[in-house]
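Hi, here's the filled form for the chain we discussed.

Project: internal
Contact: R.S.
Residues: 709
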Amino acid sequence: MPDLFPLLLLVFMTLLAAPADAANRGPLILSGPADIDMLAHHFDYVLDRDWALRVDDFAGPSSVAMQPLPGPVPDFGYTPARIWLRLDVSNGTGGTNDWLFFVHANFTQQIAIYRIGVGGDVATLLDLDTQSPFGARPVDYPQMVAPFALAPGEAATLLVAYYSQGASRLSMSVETPESFAVQARLNAAKNYVFYGMMGILIAAAVLALVMFRQMVFAAYAAYLFSVFLYVAHADGTTFQYIWPHWPAFNSMASVAVGSGVMVFGGLFAIAILQTSIHHPIMHRVLLAVVASVVVLDIVLWAIDPQLLKQLLVIMISITTMTLLVAGLVAARRRFREVRFYVLGWLATVIPSTLFTARHTFGIETERFNLYDAVRVALVFEAMMMGLAIVDRFNQLRQSRRQALEESLGQARRNLALGERLALLEERYALAQALERRRAENAMDTAHDLRQPMHALRLSIRQMFTDRAANADAAQIESALDYMERLVAERLVDDGDAGGADRPSPLGGEAEPAAQAHGKEPGEPGIHDVLRGIADMFAPEAQAKGLELRLVLAAPDAGVASYPLMRIAANLVSNAIKYTRQGRVVIGLRRHGTGHRVEIHDTGPGLSGTVFEEALHRGHRLERDRSAAEGSGLGLAVVRETAAANGWRVTACEGRRTGATIRIELAGASVHVPELQSLVPETSVQKTALASIGSVAATGAPQSAVRPTA
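And the returned structure, exactly as it came back:
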């Protein structure tokens, strides 16, 4: 059925042409070059549908019956038959012996050209098939040329047998060496112009792709390269220079590169027209065209290559028209952006339509060479697309400049927001630190108050039992003094950061906040502080059955009494808490130019990494969890208070049993204080120091306290 229409058309044209050709039959008298119009009047043909004919069938006296060629050029449509053409020639020149039979095609699947002499002798001039490399051709030329000899006055028969997987249309001519050289130079000049223009545009597209990395440039570069290969394949240049040893691929190269032209042309149209954004319907149409080409290649490549080539010729016109329509649709609203695109595809519509008409319906154009028109249209289209690339470049540059300005403005806004956010985060962190400090101060205060309150409770209980009024009064006063100082210190610590004066919680005048951590005038010395600590914890040690000793082996010195009282109270409290039996010793030694307070016990020991772990706030050793209750704040308070006053806290590493914690007091001034000079301004402190002084004067420690001067 697919061959019915061409056959009917062929029969009709044969009937019309037969009477006119009958009068002109006879050999072709060669007086010079003969083009296809001259050859067509002398060609006879036969279609070998069974591929049964051989050259010998045309050389004998009983030659195969043949018919005159029905048209101006051998064209039998897409036929699976092998086509035989016969041309009787006679040399009418006076001195030309060498001739060339020129087939104006780069490749056909099978072609053989024979010269049959008057006596029936057969000479093979050309014999090529899909296994013949380019080097098998007798003349090194992109298209197929078969040289033959014909002396003046001599007659011969030229027999051409060929099969084409695509269109069977072939243009042929007989040339002299001189005329062939002229045509070769003309074709080379046209090719150089076309290839040069395409090479420049491909290089420009690739450069734009490298610079801007936009898919539109990638699609256009691929489209240009496909066009370049398609025309070069049609000329035969690719088979001559690019793949001369792959005749099997050359047989299907028109399908590969032609499909590339349509596919990449569609993708380029999608990219440059931005159809997915502006024209969704045309976007789907273009995708359908691209997909149709790909599907045809996949399905028919191996099944029916001839049908594939026939359909792709039709698809060329369909694709070109679709690309033009897409440009016109876009030009209705965006003419300035797509004007070069529309002009380019407008130039390719006419030659692509004529190309389809020639290879599908046999319609011939006599006024101009179709392939020359295709070249001109493609060069013009490439130039228009080159202008489109430049236009695209300007659009991208403007859009990038605008985007840069917008990004700079956004960056400024983000920077301002970031600065505000950083300020808020800083204030939030400051509020968290203040809240954490207040919480820690409250925990430290509760921890520090626990022991003096416990000592006070024991002392009051002892007052009503042992009636040891003087000693108990001293212990009570020491405990009250420590707690009052502790509360006053915490109130100052929780005050404002500006150091504003706070009313004294002890009932006196306001005291400066700056004196909270320093030595105040009239404060008691180291001896009095340690004696007060010994008195404070004596009842607790006695209740637990421990011996609490005070050893003062260094002269007295001035010191910030409250921080030392906090440190010593926490260390003595821990020593009593974790010592099951034995004793606790509070000692004072000279250390270089300063003093060193030491707390010794006979407990489980505390040194090295264990000591470092215990210094962390809220951390309790596993071994101590079952020994006594605690909060893990004692040693942390000791470390923080010592660091705030420039003192150093260490643990003795040489102890075999028990623990020794040492506080190095740097900068304590050595003196022998008079009792009167140690009397503080408040009445409560005055009573407490008097009690401490009386105990020191009698030398009779209470509750197993044995101070040594």
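Let me know if anything looks off before we file it.
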